[in-house]
Amino acid sequence: TLNHIHLNVVDLDKSIQFYGDLFGATIRDASPGNATLSLPGKPAWISLTKTGEETGHYSHVGIGVDFDPASGDAERLASEINAKYPESNAQPTGATASGPNTRSVYVSDPSGIRVQILPKEDDGWLPGGPVGKKILNGTQG
Asked: Which residues contact 130 (CB under 8 A, 6 or more apart)?
């Protein structure tokens, strides 16, 4: 499935308004400098990160597949991709500010375009955002 697109944006608030107005996107979660917007027909979403650059740009696209982070799929998948396409530099997500993360695998296609492979059910919640903190603390289901 096409899971999400990640964009680096100059003005986060204006971008949230833009995607909300044009596509009916609503804020799913946010953390400082980041927002995840759910698109109608979920689980598709848009991920926005504020950039310090003068113009925004594409970061990566997320492709959803049958993928179980809890069973080591990230490491297995990265290893299999690198065996077949060594130039792809496939890597599990790795540690984040919220702790260890094997949620996905990042890979470069033959043209150097970044692709994130993740579970097709992933809905974009941010572990460090308000909703993510509640989920991690067990106060929201």
From this structure: 29, 30, 31
The pTM score is 0.74
**CA separation for the pair 88, 81 (Å, rounded):** 8
**CA–CA separation, 108 and 87 (whole Å):** 8
CA angle 115, 116, 120 (to 5 degrees): 125
Token pair listed for 126: 């941010």
Give the integer Cα–Cα distance in Å for 113 and 74: 19
Q: Which helix (H) or strand (E) holds 77?
A: helix 73-84
21 CB contacts (<8 Å, ≥6 apart)? none
3-state secondary structure of 130: helix
Q: What is the pLDDT of residue 129?
A: 57
Instruction: State the DSSP code for 139.
Output: S
